[in-house]
UniProtKB/TrEMBL annotation:
<dbReference type="GO" id="GO:0005773">
    <property type="term" value="C:vacuole"/>
</dbReference>
<dbReference type="InterPro" id="IPR017850">
    <property type="entry name" value="Alkaline_phosphatase_core_sf"/>
</dbReference>
<protein>
    <submittedName>
        <fullName>Thioredoxin-like 2</fullName>
    </submittedName>
</protein>
<dbReference type="InterPro" id="IPR002591">
    <property type="entry name" value="Phosphodiest/P_Trfase"/>
</dbReference>
<dbReference type="Pfam" id="PF01663">
    <property type="entry name" value="Phosphodiest"/>
</dbReference>
<dbReference type="GO" id="GO:0016787">
    <property type="term" value="F:hydrolase activity"/>
</dbReference>
Length: 184
């Protein structure tokens, strides 16, 4: 990383881009990512210290969120051609994933959008394709067989895995203890 300063866009810091860009290049467990997280933690600490020194910390609500975790396997999204029904395509895929037909096929679970596990909370989204494949942790889907070895990271979306977790933090100044928001 050439600079320890956050990138800025429309006057807002994009601290997370440091992690995302490097995470894809070196993987989420690389020491460079640990260093980047420590720098971000330091920046957040400076913000909180500054608010406390000015006596306004209790008057400010701070909310920080992340939208996904990162580890070595992505989610596989499949959009069948308009001439094919997703359910027919889905049946053929599951038939092809039977033991002995596809190497490591047992590590991929394929779902129709409407049958996604409810814990994922995004089956109703228009951004989700009609067929979704969820890959087990530490596996990656490839279109072609390759001998290439990759160590980079990829986004993870399955909240069954800790490595896919995202963060949600808030300061307590305007949010009462026990108050709950909607699942998102």
């Amino acid at each position: 990383m050439s600079s320890h300063e956050p990138k800025w866009w429309l006057g807002e810091p994009l601290w997370d881009w440091i992690l995302i860009i490097r995470g894809h290049q070196v993987g989420p467990d690389d020491p460079q990512i640990t260093e980047a997280v420590a720098r971000i933690d330091s920046l957040i600490g400076r913000l909180i210290d500054g608010l406390e020194k000015r006596g306004v910390f209790e008057d400010v609500t701070i909310i920080m969120v992340g939208d996904h975790g990162m580890y070595y396997t992505p989610m596989l999204a499949i959009r069948p051609p308009p001439s094919h029904a997703p359910s027919d395509f889905f049946a053929k895929m599951n038939e092809g994933l039977e033991p002995g037909k596809v190497e490591n096929g047992k590590y991929l679970k394929v779902y129709l959008k409407e049958e996604l596990p409810s814990r994922l909370h995004y089956a109703a989204s228009g951004r989700i394709p009609p067929i979704i494949g969820l890959i087990e942790e530490s596996f990656k889907g490839e279109q072609k067989r390759t001998k290439r070895q990759e160590c980079g990271g990829a986004h993870g979306y399955d909240n069954a895995f800790f490595s896919h977790a995202y963060y949600f933090y808030w300061s307590w100044s305007s949010i009462r203890k026990g108050e709950e928001g909607a699942v998102f």
